[in-house]
# Entry
Amino acid sequence: MASGNWGSVKSLSQEKIVLAITVVMFAVAAFALPGFFTSENIVSIVRSVSVLGILALGMAIVIIGRGIDLSAVAIMAMSVAWYLQLLNDGTTDGTALALVLAGVLATGLLNGFLVAYAEVPAIFVTLASGSFVFGYVRSQLITQDAVPVPDGHWLQLFGGVRYLDVPVEVFIFAALAFLIFLLLRYTKWGRYVYYAGDNPIAARNVGMPVRPMLVLRYVISALISFIAGLLTAASLHSINTRIVNSTLLYDIVLVAVIGGIGLSGGKGSVRNVLFGAALIGIMLNAMTIIDIALIYQNLIKSTILLAAIIIDGLINPRDEQTSQQGDI
Amino acid sequence: MKYVKMLMAAAAVLSISLFSTASQAQEDPGPAAYSQALKGKHVMLVPMAMGFDLAQGWSHYIQKEVESFGGTFETRDPNWSVEAGAQAITEAISSDARPDVLIVHAPDLNSYARLLKKAQAAGTYVILIDNPANFAADAFVGSDWDRLGQLEAEAAIKGCGPNSSKKIGLVQGDQVNASSLYQYAGIMKVLEKNKEFQIVAKPDSNWDATTSRNVTTTMLQQHPDVCAIIDFWDGDASGAAAAIRDAKLQDKVFLVTTGGGEKTADCDTLENGTYGAVVMTELHNQSRDINAIIKFLLQSGQPAGTSKTYIYTLEKATDKAGLTANSCWDLKALQAEAAAK
# Structure
């Protein structure tokens, strides 16, 4: 496991490189950019990446188990859009929530079932199910791209919740990160995720329930996406399904991969997501303060992703015994 | 003589009344010509996507008018994808049911130019709406974005007032869309004339509300004394509004944006103070202009691609005090009307 490599021979892990870059970037920005090193700005950096970070936590669980979930953004936007549409049409909150949760669970189960039992590559399953979720909800269940939160609904009030001047998203991000850390580190299920991601065949041979566990990972990822969607709607008082066409999905993969979670599975932890999110958050914030145009921001972001993938490939070469090309 | 006069007067009265009855009985040739030129004509709308207020409003008003003159109306939904839009236009031109009029909402200055030339060569009139493009359409109907930017800047200056910090922040759309670039140019023209006002930051939102919220949060931390923010569209201005709300600066920052004049998007938000002023494109009037040019082109007899008309929508910045019952149109009401049919 790469996360146990601190101080070992292979000490130059990607995680450490990213952490070093993040620290340097933070120091330079704090020194050079007025208004960067203030508690408000730090809080806003964390807040601006908290939804991204939450989504990346779900993605991390799936990737560590050697998979990928490209339906995350579609589930996030469309489940909440449907929920708000139901509320706007006069459905009671309980019924609407139950219906949408059922939909989210069904999508996660379908993803997991197709990957685990039908053995279709995860990248195709989730790409297709993401498109399906978007297309079905957009055409059958909602009437327009953006759906507002009804006036006076708890989501509106929830979006304004602060504790010690820190927005609620930050606490939820922290809580989820801690919960998933405990789950991965201290439960049998969590250890099994690493084993299954590292060498699925060996894991199955020693008797781990590899397939049901795989299904559960996609269900967790779907539920986390729904939470991220609710937080987005709470802060903006509406959800715009155009986000499915944005670069958000790539940003999620970016946060996970750049933090050092290997795409070949079995490596990484919650800490990697936090480092990745910190790097992206500081970078975007600094670029906004310097007033760099968005197209250049995207270029810089994608260059860093490319570099991270190359470094990942050099530091963690594929293991002939356990890896197969085109696994995900 | 008296009788002669009376007789002449009677004859005059009779002849006038006869003439007038004759002219009353004569038919006005207009309706027949109108009907003949328009009946069975095929009109197609290709917006950037069908799922937002502008597209749904245009489509409602145009459909109503086209169907009333006996034509057929269709829409294509590219769902914000330039490729899907290009494919829809290509298929429309090559199909047997080639549209007589193609109404296109261009995503940028260049993408569709060659396709639209092809459409004109095949005999289809092309009307560009809302977004200008580098292409000589038969007509352009929409905003003069430069003028719209000027209206926004004037509203922001007025919203700030003479005793303010005179600092204005922009949240642009992106760097490729004509509506964003021209809006920016218009804003700058007004600021050239009002040198005491200055732009403190001008990040892009990429038309996304979350991005708008994040950049506005940063902007307000860097410049807490900003007195007005211009966000280039009501769709992402909800993000800027959230950032202002979070910073508890609703009373200090005057938020100006642009929109299609839909009730929940613009009038309700002006009413509750989310936006300080909105330059509305008054979509119902704009749709009327589109309908008028469709009817003109189909009757004109001129070949497609021979005229070049610009019809700019009359716009003004509306604030809460200027709201009237007719300021907005209501998407929900239009949807209910369509559902009742």
Q: What stands out?
A: The mean pLDDT of chain B is 89. The interface with chain A takes residues 49, 51-53, 56, 79-81, 174-176, 201-211, 213-215, 217-219, 221-222, 235, 238-239, 242, 245-246, 264, 331, 335 of chain B (CB under 8 Å). Chain B has two domains: 32-143+283-307, 145-280. Residues 2-25 of chain B form the longest helix (24 residues).
